[in-house]
Design brief:
Elements (H helix, E strand, L loop, with lengths): L8 E6 L2 E8 L4 E8 L12 E2 L15 E2 L9 E3 L18 H5 L1 E9 L5 E9 L2 E9 L6 E9 L5 E14 L11 E9 L2 E9 L15 E7 L7 E2 L2 E6 L4 E7 L5 E7 L4 E7 L2 H4 L3 E3 L4 E3 L3 E6 L3 H10 L17 E4 L1 H4 L5 H11 L4 E6 L28 H10 L3 E6 L3 E2 L4 H5 L6 E2 L2 E2 L1 E2 L2 E3 L5 H17 L4 E4 L15 H22 L4 E4 L9 H4 L4 E3 L9 H7 L9 E6 L6 H10 L4 E5 L7 H22 L1 E9 L8 E9 L4 E8 L9 E4 L7 E6 L4 E4 L2 E4 L6 E8 L1
Parallel strand pairs: 23-24, 23-35, 24-25, 25-31, 31-32, 32-33, 33-34, 34-35
Antiparallel strand pairs: 1-2, 2-3, 4-5, 6-11, 7-8, 8-9, 9-10, 10-21, 10-22, 11-19, 11-20, 12-13, 12-15, 12-16, 14-18, 16-17, 17-22, 18-19, 26-30, 27-28, 29-30, 36-37, 37-38, 38-43, 39-42, 40-43, 41-42
């Protein structure tokens, strides 16, 4: 039954979890949360009031009991003209202002799909504006998608200064009180070449305990501002009730400025997120009468389990858009990118020399990276004109791609297509189609950005990028993007709104490429890993995991990303250096078994023994593709605090979707486990047997354990097990 005054609690069963909506009858405010079906009976009735005898001990005046919980809305919005929030909220949070207080239930409509899925629309009404909260779920989905649309239903314009995509309320429903010592926040930090570091903190450590009177608004608002959505943080937040064994999580699907909030005023905790607001992201937008705005979608999940279980649910939703990718992507083809070979100086002869060495290997794609275009001033990057360097490619790129096809390879090429650099004519002469800030071209270091809202900018990219890909026969495009457009740009009522429009226009161009070239494989690279969020990953076949090309922390970063993107989209570098020992080569190559194998390095001087190791890795990788393509990962770690100077050991265990094949990728760092080696728990005690391995670290299966022999510093090994 849908939510109404006669039905103040409405539950919708979505597989093994329930979406629960609750109407607070006095205020007509609607709250929303998710519950595992297995834990429904464990929910408790919360306390109504909090007595604080310690506050007035020995005093004649007795402070009255204070409110324990207050219904928190499933939609958070701030309109211009609202009074500033009391309780010390101003500058810290824009939640729960007068506009939210005014939003009340209008109606709820739920539609069951033919397959048994749900589309649940909850309509809220306020004075002159309305909001629709939508949840969609289909059978087989392990998580739900939620979005919020705000509309102007009045006769005058309204200006929106904050709008949530989602708000999960009333956490934790398994605690009668404020759950001291049992609520933990999980986030993932990110910086260049060190993406996806997990952070796990008690709410007390984040200073998010309720005050004795519940007066102050406590908020941990975090996110990023600009066009590198994975800079500082991944757009992810989770809350764990460690006593109940339940976790809630959210992942925003948005490539621009965003924010998450862990909010508390009373006993309950609320999680919300969406576009970065006026305070955080310099964003506001005016809606004319009849106009509406939809916030970016969010993926939401709940699980009676741990972080790996929760992240598997969230990440699983990223598989749906991959049905639109070229058929070859089902094979997870191995690629070679010559960047760590020529270091920005590719040529026709060098590319073909590399291709000749790759003949007979499992490599299917050869990518020509930065340096194929003219550099008028001979500087490192002077891109934007995209004129082929005829000294390096005398007959043009088409001759090179044709030769690669004859040798049995698909040809790829690098573009940083959304920007231009000093030294190019485009930088100085095409300011008419560049993003502006305060009327001047928005310049960040050696970059300006094309204003892709402009038809002229789209036409320019059609001429320089789309035509190059089509006419020269490229099957693969690596899209780099190496800085952020910052707080925003001109062309809209606020810098943040200009930025939002630019992000949408940029993503529209990715779709334009797909429509024009349906078989094109697109790599999402942004200084390695700065665009690894669901909306960008939905547009691309894979993403570069990091700019950590040769460093020892590669296995750590590669494993981190299993919790945030699909392994089949997680492109990992293994640079084959002639001076590397066999042990070092195995260490590097083993890491690629956590995602997509991307090789690089100077092959012409690589010793035969080293190339034999690389060939062995490629052939074994082909045997593991089905587990990487579909499965569930679990991370085992016993490491020190540093990524740059890692210590200890790590094992990534991935169970194939059929439950019959299992992949274990094991690495040691400095000071690994002692003489006893490592013991790795295997899922499901079903009689696993070792079916093959890469690397010479010994291992035996004993029951539901894989027992790894001791190993020296910086070793790698991969094991394939079968039932």
């Amino acid at each position: 039954m849908n939510l109404s005054s006669a039905n103040p609690v409405s539950d919708f069963v979505c597989g093994d979890f329930v979406a629960r909506y609750r109407l607070d009858t006095p205020t007509r405010r609607v709250t929303f949360h998710l519950l595992p079906v297995s834990a429904l009976d464990a929910t408790v009735e919360p306390r109504v009031a909090v007595d604080t005898p310690e506050v007035h001990a020995g005093q004649s005046y007795k402070w009255p009991p204070v409110m324990a919980r207050k219904a928190d809305s499933l939609v958070q919005v701030k309109l211009r003209g609202d009074g500033a929030g009391h309780g010390f909220a101003l500058g810290r949070t824009m939640r729960n202002g007068p506009s939210v207080e005014a939003l009340v239930l209008d109606r709820q409509e739920s539609v069951r799909s033919d397959g048994g899925g749900w589309c649940i629309d909850t309509f809220l009404a306020g004075p002159g504006f309305s909001a629709m909260h939508r949840l969609t779920w289909e059978p087989g989905d392990l998580a739900a998608v939620v979005s919020t649309t705000l509309g102007n239903t009045g006769d005058t314009p309204i200006t929106v200064e904050m709008l949530s995509s989602f708000s999960l309320n009333d956490l934790s429903p398994f605690a009668r009180d404020d759950a001291p010592g049992r609520l933990r926040a999980h986030r993932f930090r990110s910086t260049w070449s060190a993406e996806g570091r997990h952070e796990n903190r008690l709410l007390e450590e984040l200073h998010l305990e309720r005050s004795w009177a519940g007066h102050s608004h406590q908020s941990e608002r975090f996110g990023q501002v600009g066009t590198l959505p994975v800079r500082g943080w991944f757009p992810f937040v989770a809350l764990e009730d460690s006593a109940a064994g339940v976790m809630w999580g959210a992942q925003l699907s948005w490539a621009g400025s965003w924010q998450m909030e862990i909010y508390r005023r009373h006993d309950d905790v609320n999680l919300s997120g969406g576009l970065a607001d006026r305070e955080f992201g310099q964003w506001w937008k005016t809606l004319a009468p009849g106009e509406s705005l939809e916030a970016p979608p969010a993926h939401l999940a709940v699980v009676a389990g741990d972080l790996d279980d929760l992240c598997h649910r969230l990440v699983s939703l990223q598989a749906k858009p991959l049905a639109k990718q070229p058929a070859i992507e089902e094979e997870l083809p191995i690629l070679f990118n010559e960047w760590c070979s020529s270091w920005g100086h590719p040529s026709h002869d060098y590319v073909l020399e590399t291709a000749r060495r790759l003949v007979g290997s499992e490599v299917r794609i050869l990518v020509i990276d930065d340096g194929w275009a003219e550099r008028p001033g001979k500087q490192f990057q002077q891109n934007g004109d995209w004129v082929v360097n005829r000294r390096a490619f005398p007959e043009g790129l088409g001759a090179t791609t044709g030769a690669l096809r004859e040798a049995g390879f698909l040809a790829g090429v690098w573009f940083e297509m959304e920007v231009c650099n000093p030294g190019s004519r485009a930088f100085e002469e095409r300011t008419d189609i560049q993003l502006k800030s305060n009327g001047l071209p928005l310049t960040v270091g050696p970059r300006r950005f094309w204003d892709l809202r402009s038809p002229g900018a789209v036409a320019y990219l059609d001429e320089k990028v789309l035509a190059r890909l089509r006419d020269d026969g490229f099957a693969y495009l690596k899209v780099d993007y190496n800085d952020t457009a910052g707080t925003g740009c001109d062309g809209a009522e606020s810098p943040g709104e200009g930025l939002r429009q630019q992000v949408l226009a940029s993503q529209a161009y990715f779709r334009r490429l797909r429509e024009a070239l349906p078989e094109l494989i697109v790599e999402n690279c942004s200084s390695g890993g700065h665009r690894l969020e669901p909306s960008m990953m939905a547009l691309c076949a894979m993403g570069s995991f990091s700019d950590a090309h040769e460093t020892v922390e590669i296995p750590l970063i590669a494993a981190n990303l299993h919790r945030l993107i699909l392994p089949r989209q997680n492109q990992i570098w293994a640079v084959l250096n002639p001076g590397d020992s066999i042990q070092r080569l195995i260490y590097s190559l083993s890491a690629t078994f956590m995602g997509r194998m991307c090789l690089s390095g100077d092959l012409k001087d690589l010793p035969a023994a080293s190339w034999d190791v690389a060939l062995s890795a490629q052939r074994f990788y082909r045997r593991c593709v089905s587990v990487l393509r579909e499965g569930k990962s679990r991370l085992h770690r016993d490491i020190g605090p540093s990524f740059r100077y890692p210590t200890g050991s790590q094992e990534l265990v991935r169970l194939g979707s059929d439950g019959r094949r299992l992949l274990v990728v094991a690495h040691t760092f400095a000071q690994p486990a002692g003489p006893a080696g490592r013991v790795v728990a295997l899922p499901n005690d079903v009689g696993w047997a070792l079916a093959g391995q890469f690397g010479d670290r010994g291992a035996v299966v004993a029951g539901n354990e894989l027992r790894l022999d001791p190993a020296p510093d910086y070793t790698g090994a991969v094991y394939l097990l079968e039932r």
